[in-house]
């Protein structure tokens, strides 16, 4: 558990305390009240919107229904009427408002809490066995603990993903993403790496390896030594498990490292988060890159880690450009400032459901999105 805070609350007239658990490092609510099956949805939403945590003590399935009822009461902001004579917002402004609404929604939903006892087990009537999901997501429970139901459900869902696995056509095999590690559900960017001509097969680096899927593709293509790096230990554990399950761990491994490992490589691939923005959850770190920091760090450090004739492969979408969050000129400027030249580019279009969903508030931008593998060489 990342947050060792202790919370206090009153239960059956007695002061109690428990450990606060949040893998996302969300602080506990400043005020917590105990509630049960008698709590109505309107009152629950009022408390949650005011930032009051509600520790549920009734039936587990009722708690899930209450969470859904709270979610239905949260305004999504999409139906708000613009003020008279107000300027038409830019796409970037609309996206920022959308993100703010999503963040507020997450904060409200996080106010419904459930107790967890050593075992681990959820201390509610009719609660399912969550021990495997909990241990894989949060670790052992040695004392009474409280967690948001929303985060617990995320851990349960992640365990289902891990057990079932995700088939990756570019690998011809399944991988099993761990909790907090982004599942590569968008296969088009994997195909770009799988078909790009390799400048050499001695050594490759995969920066920000995540599940290890790109490292696995490079190893499967015959690169003799592949090193994946990630700043998150849970991602490194997942990547090494992926490589071992695929029988590739003899020549490929992942290590805990922020950006580049020591040495140089024929291929240095990076699929950074595609959108500038502040991550709010573990999974957000695979989507949002504050001020494009990882992208810029990759470009700046790349020349010092390329072998003679080696290439950097930047795998990135132009969605940030279409949303007005970054320009193509900025990207090309960062490439030039790093002492790099573009020696090739391979483009593809997305095949995921959101690109074809006309109800998505950013359907126009998503449907026009292009994902590219930029081949970069040192000048």
UniProtKB/TrEMBL annotation:
Keyword Methyltransferase: yes
PANTHER family: HEMK METHYLTRANSFERASE, MTRF1L RELEASE FACTOR GLUTAMINE METHYLTRANSFERASE
Domain Methyltransferase small: 202-317
Organism name: Paeniglutamicibacter psychrophenolicus
Family matches, as Pfam families: MTS (PF05175)
GO biological process: methylation
Region feature (Disordered): 1-29
Descriptive protein name: SAM-dependent methyltransferase
Molecular function in Gene Ontology: methyltransferase activity
Cross-referenced PROSITE patterns: N6_MTASE
Bias (Polar residues) ranges: 1-11
Keywords, sorted A to Z: Methyltransferase, Transferase
InterPro entries reported in the protein's UniProt record: DNA_methylase_N6_adenine_CS, N5-glutamine_MTase, SAM-dependent_MTases_sf, Small_mtfrase_dom
Top-rank lineage group of the source organism: Bacteria
